[in-house]
Amino acid sequence: MTKIKTTYNRRSFLKVSAAAGGGLVLGFGLLNSCDPAKTTAIDYPLELPKNWFNLSGFIKIGENGVVTIMSPNPEIGQNVKTAMPMIVAEELDVNWKKVVVEQAGLDTNTFTRQVAGGSQSIRKSWKGLRIAGATVRNMLMQAAALKWGVPLEEVSTLSGTIHHKASNRSLGFGEVASEAATLKVPEEVTLKDIKDFSIIGNPTKNVDGKGIVTGKPLFGMDYEEEGMLYATVIHPPQFGSGIDSFNQDEVSKLLGITSVFKLEIDYSSAPKWQQKAFAKNNMIVVVGNSTWEVFKAARQLKVQWKIPSKIENTTNDKERLTALLEDKNIKPVRKDGDVEKAFQKSTKIIESTYSAPFLPHNPMAPMNFFADVTADKARFVGPIQTPEVALGMLTDILKLPKEKIEIQLTRIGGGFGRRLYGNFVVEAGLISQKIGKPIKLIYSREEDMSYGPFRPTYKIFYKAALSKANELTAFKVKGAGSQGSPVWPDRFPAGTVDNFLAEHRKMPSTIATGAWRAPKSNFTAGVEQAFLDEVAEAADKDPIDFRIELFKKAETNPVGDKNDYDPKRYRGVLELIREKSNWDRKQKGLFRGVAAYFCHNSYVAQVVDIKMVNDTPKVVKVWNAVDCGVVVNPEGAKNQIEGGVIDGLGTAMFGEVTFNNGYISKRNFDDYKLIRQKDAPLEIETFFVENNIDPTGLGEPSLPPVIGALANALYQATGKRYYNQPFNFTKNSFF
Amino acid sequence: MGQFTLNINGTTKQVKVENDTPLLWVLRDHLKLKGTKFGCGIAECGACTVHVDGKAERSCSIPVSQLHGKAITTIEGLSEDGTHPVQKAWLQHDVAQCGYCQAGQIMSASALLAKNPKPNDEEITEAMNGNICRCGTYVRIKKAIKTATNL
Ligand code: FES
Ligand code: FES
Fold first, then answer.
1. Are residues A540 and A619 in the same domain?
2. Ligand 1 mean position to A423 CA, how many Å?
3. Considering its fold, how many domains does chain A have in total?
4. DSSP E strands: which ranges in A383-508?
């Protein structure tokens, strides 16, 4: 048991700070009875209570013991809507079957960091959520102790019931909830021992599962209100273009169309990292009575687009990246020892260059948002990974005070980073403001795929040196990318080799770029792990042995003090994957590749198994060993790993868009090949390292390394190294 | 603009829309059945899959005018309370991630099992290849279909 402080001010507001820096602020309302009609228990056949006693921003308890736990963060399929309430429920000590989970809207007074991004939801809220549950549990116990006239120390809880052993009395949480809500917030609460956890660590189904399989309207796309109109937008096809003229009158007259107009947005007050994604800030808006009518009318638009001053071609980008890598002015970002000297003294030199293209995010649900903006207030409903950032932009651009803007969050039909950038929320707001009606904005797939921002195109050059004894003596990495570098200066193998040099350059580009699931790592991990496979081969060492040797060195005698990984945990996942995948037992006809990576605070090692079927490689199995600390929900965690693996494989096999004269090459799924059932591995198996370390996220970490493991397995199968992504098998070949 | 009579989930519905309106948008915008999803609009992703006379079809690419006298089933009509074997198996395997593609996946899977109650691996892959899942739930989808054959 850990005692932990809950600091609060005189106005009886509890302020809880999570150690990891995220922090949560819980507003403690006193005895709020909420309207039960507002809560829908889609997934639990529970009888809802008549009254809810609101015990914090997170928890409401009904008189019959049913508990509502709010899920603060946006749900994009990373399953936080199940995992975050599980953490609260654990410390509250309630029966999970009696829990209803409700999605919180944006509420900057009650919650902080309501963000889905960087795999940080669980890591940054772990302590705060536990304190929230433990605090309410303590207040319920106090209420019971008062009622019975016994000391608090004699009172205990078990799964939603409070007990007094000596007098053999017990009360349900619901029976004391109203009294508990009038008590003072305790200054200190006790957290459970990890060994006493009964909800955390228990495989738990998605709380929205039933709603999903029965087609309930859970997504932003499904939201609508009486009197609402539908809108779609057409952005310029080339970056840097604008609208000269278009057939506004003709399209305005089409059946079901209520208005057609030009819209230009001034994003200059938006955060810089958002602006970078919003290169296309002008558009034509089509508003009408139904989605089909506005989609069809948008196709009738004949637009004279302005010719951009700079027109980008992907083929030129490739050459520009190469030139940057060869430029003498490339910037060093980390330097240990002297690589050049070490190269001269070495016995063997290995060098290779790797590249990857621009990528669209392609979430399954195209961008959409509901907006109802009136003269003095605004209401928004929909899918966004960064509601608080959106609120800031809306305040500036709609010129409305923060308190007058409400953002409700829906389930999100995929994000992958795209929905970190809320241009579509701003667009929806301005459209509604302009026409003075509630609207739902929906992008066509073509608009969704071509708007951007895109995963940058990257190129990396590696050079390694081996001594006579086949020891790694020098390692050099040079990287460049459009609008950003792919190099992580302090990640492995930095810290394991005496002579290390990392350099990078940024390529100016007109193509909007932004975060794409596991930013930078989604490229760097795969190519670094493929290169290490080449180095291990040159050293005549087993690729796992080769890496383990390096980690052992970093454990006992690290180079530099800025290394951002724990070599012991890194080695741990490699040792686990070796054991679980029977790495050392060779099988005829089975070609295997291994990789390991650390990103987003979690460690993942993978083995990809390939068989050749009629000369075509087929991924039969992917093995994963994962160290993310305490596994909150093993079922959801395994699903995240599987999803990342499949996304990584698909990206490596097929993911690519190019730009020709500034025009994107692919705009829908007939051209853009996403991984399908035929290409997917037959089996994925995942093993978690068991430890008591505070949990870290899983939405991203399994994606980056699998690209390297695939490349390494392909090398075993085909004798060819795969340097350029996508690995380019014909569009429909199964893999 | 035309008046159309549709048989959806066993009930008769009237809609007044343009002849070329795809079934998908009739369902979503006019009949307020939001379970059927929009993903691509060109019959490439499967998010909009429904049953037309028992066969899995992409509702984004069937104009309402071609549905006279046909029986349409959407995810809302697959079972009354989510107890179709495919739905049960989906929950058992916790298939969904974001969940957006899953109505379409379930409609493709249930159409397959209706005509082939014990499909082999290749038959499952073939029948499900038209349904994209951007979240990568493919391995669980296959497992769930196999479980459903025994429910
Ligand atoms: S929306 Fe119909 S197949 Fe994609
Ligand atoms: S579950 Fe997200 S697209 Fe399939």
1. yes
2. 25
3. 3
4. 405-409, 439-442, 458-466, 472-482, 499-507
A593 in a structural domain: yes
Q: What is the dihedral angle through the alpha carbons of A32, A37, A38, A43, rounded to the nearest 10 degrees?
A: 110
CB-CB contact of A683 with A719 (8 Å): no
Each residue of A457-473: pLDDT tens digit? 999 999 999 999 999 99
Average pLDDT over residues A329-348: 96
d(CA B100, CA B36): 9
Residues contacting B9, CB < 8 A, separation 6+:
B72, B73, B74, B76, B77
| Ligand 1 pocket, residue B46 CB under 6 Å | yes
Distance from CA of A487 to the nearest CA of B (A): 27
| pLDDT per residue as tens digits for the range A133-183 | 999 999 999 999 999 999 999 999 999 999 999 999 999 999 998 888 888
A41 has a pLDDT exceeding 70: no
Closest partner CB to A364 (pick from B74, B82, B134): B134
Taking an 8 Å cut-off on Cβ atoms, the answer to whether B76 and A208 are in contact is no
Strands (E), A484-636: 499-507, 591-599, 602-613, 616-627
CB-based contact, A226 to chain B, within 8 Å: no
Q: Sign (positive/negative) of CA torsion B137, B141, B143, B148?
A: positive
Structural domain boundaries, residue A236 = 220-309+367-442
The boundaries of the domain holding residue B134 are 85-148
- Pairwise CB contact (< 8 Å): A365 & B40: no
CB contact (8 A) between residue A413 and residue B97 = no
User: Domain end: B31, B51, B78, which one?
Assistant: B78
Are A586 and A678 in the same domain? Answer: yes
Q: Residue B105's CB: how many other CB atoms inside 10 A?
A: 28
B98 to A442: CB separation less than 8 angstroms, yes or no: no
Name every protein residue with a CB atom under 6 angstroms from any ligand 2 atom.
Answer: A 77, 364, 414; B 96-102, 133-135, 137
Q: Give the CATH number of the domain where residue B60 resides.
A: 3.10.20.30
In a shared domain, residues A336 and A198: no
* pTM exceeds cut of 0.90: yes
List the 203-222 stretch of A: residues with Cβ below 8 A of B: 205-206, 208-210, 212-219, 221-222
A642 neighbourhood in chain B, CB within 8 Å = 136-137, 139-140
The DSSP string of A603-656 is EEEEEEEEEEETTEEEEEEEEEEEE-SS-S-HHHHHHHHHHHHHHHHHHHHH--
Q: Which CATH number characterizes residue B99's domain?
A: 1.10.150.120
CATH number at residue A355: 3.30.365.10
Specify whether A257 is located in the same domain as A396. yes
Q: Domain check: are B89 and B121 in the same one?
A: yes
Whether A19 has a pLDDT exceeding 70, the answer reads: no
Structurally, how many domains does chain B consist of? Answer: 2
Judgement on whether residues B94 and B127 belong to the same structural domain of the protein: yes
- Mutation test residue for ligand 2: of B98, B108, B140, the one with most atoms within 8 Å of CB: B98
Size of interface A-B (CB pairs under 8 A): 194
**Cβ within 8 Å, pair B106-A213:** yes
User: What is the predicted pLDDT for the residue at A305?
Assistant: 98
Q: Are residues B31 and B8 both part of a single domain?
A: yes
Please list every residue in chain A whose beta carbon sits closer than 8 Å to the beta carbon of residue B74: 215
